[in-house]
Amino acid sequence: MQPNKPIILITEDEPKVLGSLVTGFREFGFHVLPALTGEEGLVLLLETKPDVIILDLNLPGRDGLEILNTIRRHDSAIPVLILSARDTVEDRVSGLETGADDYLTKPFAFSELLARIKALLRREIGKPKPEVDYKLNDLELHIITRKAFRGARDLNLTPKEFELLALLLRNRDQPVSRKILIQELWKVDRATSLNNVIDVHIMRLRKKIDAPGESKLIHTIRGLGFMITDNPDFEN
Ligand code: CA
C-alpha cells in the first residue's frame, strides 16, 4: 500500500468480472482488495479498513444485502456501491435503503463505475470524521482539544503520541500490531526501519501515562504488538 492510494474492496463471485475490475482499478491507481464471497469481503473489511466498497448482490453463501447489513453495523460511514444484475426499481430501492450509497446495474461500463467510485471518494474527503472522546479507567483523551489526562495530570502529548494513544484506545483490549501502527501513523507500508521509531514512541508514551505507582495501561503482547487495557489480568 502506498500513501494516498485509495483502497477499494471489491466483492464479486464471478472470477472473470472480478479479475477485470481488479485490473481496471489498479490501472487507475487504486489498491484493490478482491473477495469472491461476502464472508471474505467482511474479513478484508475488518483487517484493512478500505476507503470504498463495491458489492455484488448475488453471492454464494450470504447474500449481498445481508453482507451490507453487517457492514453497516460495523462501519456506518464507509461508502458502498452495489454492482448487481438485479435491475428492477425495487432492487435498487432496497439496496439503497439497506445502506448503499450508490447502485449500478450490470452490464456496466467501467468508465461509469470508475466515475461513480471517484464521486463517492470525493464526498468522503470533505466529511468531518466523527469526533469521539475516549476514557479508560482514569485515562481520558479529548479529540477536539487534542489533550489527554491521567486523573488530573495533563499528559502533554506530542501530536504523534496523541495519535498513537488514540489508535490504541480505539482498539482497547486488543493488541495492535507494529505493522498497523506504521501504516496508520506513518502512512507507509514496508518500513521495517520504523520498528525502532515505534518502540521509542511507545516508551515515551508509557513514561507519560504509566507513572510510578499507577496501574499500567499499555502492555507489550509478545509477537502481536501493543495493547491498552485496564484488565487486571495484564497487570505487570
Ligand atoms: Ca454474482
What percent of the residues sit in helical stretches (DSSP H or I)? Answer: 40-55%
Separate helix tally: 8
Tell me the strand order in the biggest sheet: 2-1-3-4-5
Q: Could you tell me the number of beta strands?
A: 11
**List of distinct ligands in this structure:** calcium ion
Instruction: Report the top-level CATH class of the largest domain.
Output: Alpha Beta
**Name of the CATH architecture of the largest domain:** 3-Layer(aba) Sandwich
When the domains are counted, the total is 2
Structural class determined from secondary elements? alpha/beta
H and E string:
EHEHEHEHEHEEEEHHHEE
General description of the model:
With about 240 residues, this protein is of the alpha/beta class. The chain is built from 8 helices and 11 strands. The chain folds into 2 domains: about 5-125, Response regulator (Rossmann fold); about 135-230, Winged helix-like DNA-binding domain superfamily/Winged helix DNA-binding domain (Arc Repressor Mutant, subunit A), CATH 1.10.10.10. The strands form 3 sheets. The chain has a 5-stranded parallel sheet, sandwiched between helices. Strands 6-7-8-9 form a 4-stranded antiparallel sheet, with helices on one face. Bound molecules: calcium ion.
